[in-house]
């Protein structure tokens, strides 16, 4: 369940672990709100609840692409390691299953993991660079006027 917005916007931000879990759940890392994606591949401009600007700068999501690539390459390496261990134990092991697994991992996984890599990157970036007060949140619809 998301925390009250007042606890996450004004003062302290959530700890890194909580923000990462929110990222894994495709939620806003700052407030935990869902509904930040317009579609599977398209992120909204701001969080509908806390008005966090989701793409904080040009090319912001390059970190998300790196996360997606690292997860994909890591699973490909794991599949290769499993194949090497199996062929060592039984030299007659077929190459077909590992080729099928490799194609699935390298083609399907990046598409399925894409939105998760973006929200995980948002959480990491938010932990490294907390949102300054002048981030434009005051210009967001529904933001408090002062």
Q: Tell me roughly what share of residues is in helical segments.
A: 40-55%
Structural category is mainly alpha
Unreliable spans are 2-9
Give the domain tally: 1
> Average pLDDT value?
86
Tally of individual helices: 4
- C-alpha geometry: elongated
SSE order, one letter for each helix or strand: HHHH
Question: Largest sheet, if any?
Answer: none
Q: Report the strand count.
A: 0
How much of the residues is beta strand, in percent? under 5%
Q: Termini, distance in Å?
A: 29 Å
Rounded to the nearest angstrom, the radius of gyration is 20 Å
Write the layout of secondary structure elements.
Elements: H1 5-9, H2 16-24, H3 62-89, H4 96-128
Written account of the structure:
It is a single chain. With 146 residues, the protein is mainly α. The protein has one domain. Helices cover 51% and strands 0% of the residues. The protein has four helices and no strands. Helix 2 crosses helix 4 and helix 3 runs antiparallel to helix 4. It starts with a helix and ends in an 18-residue tail after the last helix.
């Amino acid at each position: 369940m998301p925390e009250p917005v007042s606890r996450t916007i004004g003062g302290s931000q959530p700890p890194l672990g909580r923000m990462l879990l929110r990222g894994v759940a495709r939620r806003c890392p700052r407030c935990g709100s869902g509904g930040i994606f317009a579609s599977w591949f398209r992120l909204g401009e701001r969080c509908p609840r806390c008005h966090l600007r989701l793409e904080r700068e040009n090319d912001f999501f390059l970190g998300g692409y790196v996360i997606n690539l690292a997860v994909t390459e890591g699973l490909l390496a794991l599949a290769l390691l499993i194949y090497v261990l199996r062929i060592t134990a039984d030299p007659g092991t077929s190459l077909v299953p590992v080729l099928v697994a490799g194609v699935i991992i390298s083609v399907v996984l990046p598409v399925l993991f894409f939105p998760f890599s973006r929200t995980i990157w948002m959480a990491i970036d938010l932990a490294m660079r907390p949102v300054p007060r002048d981030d434009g949140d005051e210009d967001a619809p529904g933001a408090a006027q002062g």
